[in-house]
């Protein structure tokens, strides 16, 4: 008896069963852990930057490399997302020296997405 929807009428991954989605459903397959909720939030912030170049650097990294970071590195990543996109771009490309706290993480991100580190000028 499938009713079909087109356009934006249906969201989700095509799950069948009741119409319950997201929060409020206890013990359902749609419930996610706090860790997964955090990763989802960080992925969204990574893809929705103020600068397209940073979307294209942080978005793919968040999709494939973010889950491998330990909790301390995730905290650092989250703090890094609060930085200005123009600065982040210069840091990740090596055009400008990054703050010491972000250097290793930005090198990891750059390598993950294929940006070869350049010697910093400062």
UniProtKB/TrEMBL annotation:
Annotated coiled-coil segments of the chain: none
Pfam family, one: Sdh5
Compositional bias ranges of the Gly residues kind: 9-27
GO BP, sorted A to Z: tricarboxylic acid cycle
Annotated keywords: Chaperone
Annotated region described as Disordered, given as residue ranges: 1-37
Keyword rRNA processing attached: no
Name of the molecule in the record: FAD assembly factor SdhE
Family recorded in the similarity comment: Belongs to the SdhE FAD assembly factor family.
């Amino acid at each position: 008896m499938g009713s079909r929807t087109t356009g934006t009428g249906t969201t989700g991954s095509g799950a069948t069963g009741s119409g319950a989605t997201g929060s409020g459903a206890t013990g359902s397959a749609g419930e996610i852990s706090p860790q997964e909720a955090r990763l989802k939030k960080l992925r969204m912030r990574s893809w929705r930057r103020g600068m397209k170049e940073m979307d294209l650097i942080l978005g793919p990294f968040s999709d494939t490399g973010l889950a491998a970071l330990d909790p301390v590195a995730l905290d650092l990543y989250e703090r890094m997302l609060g930085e200005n996109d123009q600065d982040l771009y210069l840091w990740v490309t090596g055009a400008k020296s990054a703050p010491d706290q972000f250097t290793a993480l930005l090198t990891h991100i750059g390598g993950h997405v294929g940006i070869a580190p350049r010697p910093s000028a400062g």
